[in-house]
Structure formats: C-alpha cells, structure tokens
Amino acid sequence: MYYAGLQAKIKEANPLAKFVPCSAHSLNLVRTNAVDCCTQAVLFLNLLQNVYTFFTASTHRWKVLNASVKGLSETRWSARDDACQSLNKNWSLIINALNLLNNDDTEKTLTRNEASGILNKLNNLETAFLSIFWGQILHRFNLTSKKLQAVNIDLGVVCELYKSLITYIIDLRSDKNYQYFKQCAIEKSKIKQFQSCTKRLKIRKQFFDEGPSKETTVEYSDFKVKTYFVILDQLRSQLEKRNEKYENLLKNYNFFFKLTEMTSIKVRKNAEILQNEYKDDLSTLFANECVHFRSHLLSIGDEAPKTIQDMCGVLRKNDLIGMYPYIDVSLRMLLCTPASNCSTERSFSCLKRVKTYLRSCISAERLSDLAIMNIEFDVTAKIEFDDIINEFATLQSRRKI
C-alpha cells in the first residue's frame, strides 16, 4: 500500500503529505497483539466468551445466575473491558451458579458437563490472577481509547497519552506488582498455588573454607515468566513502536510546547528546521517571529497558553494574527494533522439509520443532506421546525389533485 496504494498516490500529488495512523485504532491493535502473544491470555478471553455464551443460551441459566455477564465483540473496542469487569464484579455469583447447575440432577448431561468445564477453568489461580490483571489493564486502555476518540485531540495529546501508558506498563513490570496481583488472586480464589508452578534446587557455590554445602529451595513460577512478563513486554513494545511514529510526526513542532522554557537561540534553530521543511508555506521571517512570540508568552506569565489549541485561541481572541501570521499558519498545520478518524467513521455508520429499506430509492443529493443533518445533530436539534413545516404544508396545498 505504501508503494503503490493510496499513500503513494497522495505522496505523488503532494510530497509533504504525512500519513498518520489513527491513534485509537492503533491502541486497540496494541491490546489485540498483547492478547495473542501467549496461550494463557488467549484462553482467558475465550473463557470470558464461554461464560457469556453458556448463561445467555438459556433463560433458566440466566435466572439461576441472577447477575450480568458481558460477551466479547469484534467491533466494539470496550467489550473486553466490560466483559472482564463483569466477571470480577460477579465472580462469586458465577461460581455459585455453576455449582448449582453442575450438581442439579434435573439438568441435562450436556449442561452439567459445560458447567463443570467452565467451573474447572475458573477454579485455578491463573484465571483469578488474569481476571484482576486484565481488569486493571483493559480499564486504563479503554479510558485512554475514549480520550483518543475525541474530535478536538491533537498529536501532542496523543504522544502524552501513549507515554503515560508506557510508563504505567513499566511500573507494573516488577516483582512487587506481581506479588500484589498474586495476593489479590489468592484472596479471590482461595487457591494458593499456580498449576504451572514448580520448584527447583538452587545450589550455591561452596568455598574451601566453608562448611558442608547447603541446597536452598526456590519457588519458580512459570506463569510469571511466560505469561505476566510476556504480556507486559508485548504491551510496552507495541506502545513504543506506535508512539515513535507520532513523535516523528511531531518532532519538528516540539519546540512550540517548550517555548517559554527554551532560550531564544534554541527557538530560532528549531523554527528554521520547520521552515526549511515547509519553504512554500513559511517565510524566512518565521524564526524571528517565533522568538518574538516566545517573549510575548513570557510577558503573559502564568496565564500563557500551554497547548496548541490554546495558542491558536489567543491569537484569534486578541487579534494577533497580523503580528504572528506564520505562527498561525504553522499552528493550524499541526492542528489539521489528523490524530484520529473515529468521528469520521462514526458519521459513516449513521448512514444505516438514514438509508433504510423504506428509503431504498432515495436520491444521492437527498441522502447526502439527510446524512449531514444526522451527523450535525447538535445543530439541527436547536432549529425551530414550526415555520419550516408550515411553509412545506403551504407549498403542498397548492398542488393540483
């Protein structure tokens, strides 16, 4: 696609055009790759879906459960978080319901076998550990994903959010956090040993002047090395890889975020780099303009804008575009660089509510108008339709029968 697809065609028309992957989609792919990196993670998500399928297949089973469980979805990104949260919230109720169905002689043999199989999977320390661990991970990723879907988000905020997740994952990759999750899982499941846990003998090297050698037994958890650390390493690797692309797109604009912290010489050098990249859009006076703008922000003090949007707002609010025309151009170039296309996709999904089987013969022009009205619902909801209805009724009344 990069050499012969849409990107190549756009690059051919405008070599300065930048490809920006959707930040929210990229974060969703990070979670997907982390789940596929080890067997235990895949089995756990399959278990979530099996629990949902088992109880929703029968109204009787749902009544026995008397709680809510969620299933997975291929299109809704928050479904995994919802499913994991529902499992953690209703853990004891699910266990009790499965025990009742398993021990009920009036139930079908297939139902009892399915309940027994799910119960065996839930009754181990690995599942309890992953339910708590994934519950916290998916919840933070889900909230971050919702923030990345905002209409007014920019690349600076995207890099900031990705870095926060990277730091969060690095903090979790420690023995103390592993022991914390393990202790919570033991309290939850009442099981103290992993099924994959073994013991090995560690023999310390003995020196000639010491007494008889002593063997010390050290507990070795296969689960920590092959599941816990693997998932966190995969998450970190994917986050850093994708964040690097956004940082490369933002690197020439980084000095705008640190204007008041940098010296005038550094501001001038960074501005010249950006000006050389966009020679047709930014004048050679751009560097000197940035130095002046730095002084302007310093004079404002604590009320100086911190984000790119705030800077653009100050230029317009105080009518300063005439003083800093090329700064306004450069800031708008950064703001116009898309960080997420979720709102665009969401607008296309509205078409299924606009064009139904009752409107199968609708014209393209009318379909476009209805779609715009549906997308811009916040604006259309404020319109008074009484005058429009009366005018329409008057026009229709003139038609000859």
Automatic annotation (TrEMBL):
<dbReference type="Pfam" id="PF05699">
    <property type="entry name" value="Dimer_Tnp_hAT"/>
</dbReference>
<protein>
    <recommendedName>
        <fullName>HAT C-terminal dimerisation domain-containing protein</fullName>
    </recommendedName>
</protein>
<dbReference type="GO" id="GO:0046983">
    <property type="term" value="F:protein dimerization activity"/>
</dbReference>
<feature type="domain" description="HAT C-terminal dimerisation">
    <location>
        <begin position="324"/>
        <end position="377"/>
    </location>
</feature>
<dbReference type="InterPro" id="IPR008906">
    <property type="entry name" value="HATC_C_dom"/>
</dbReference>
<dbReference type="InterPro" id="IPR012337">
    <property type="entry name" value="RNaseH-like_sf"/>
</dbReference>
